[in-house]
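User: Show me a protein chain along with its predicted structure.
Assistant: Here is one chain, sequence first, then structure tokens.
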Amino acid sequence: MNTLRNKVQLIGNLGNDPEIINLDSGSKLAKFSIATNESYKNSQGEKVVDTQWHNVVAWGKIAEIIENFVTKGKEIAIEGKLTTHSWEDKEGVKRYTTEVVCNELLMLGNK
């Protein structure tokens, strides 16, 4: 069960082309966001689509694959773990961001 402690699986579409960062070590970092959609009917019986945006980062070989094959609108499945970072902004206010660190990638669809 330990492998289920911090595990995220998402299927969604990229909102923009990934940002690729070449690190001094020679490794690559890919940053992107994917949208997941969930639909339901409200109390009036109307279909409602709820879209959630997820920030994702990928390192090394997965980042290289993303750089070469993944673009805006592409449907992908990812697996990874959640991480949260904090920092202080210019006004001294503590800020947080949560992202998925991708360790598995599957390209889906024809987009």
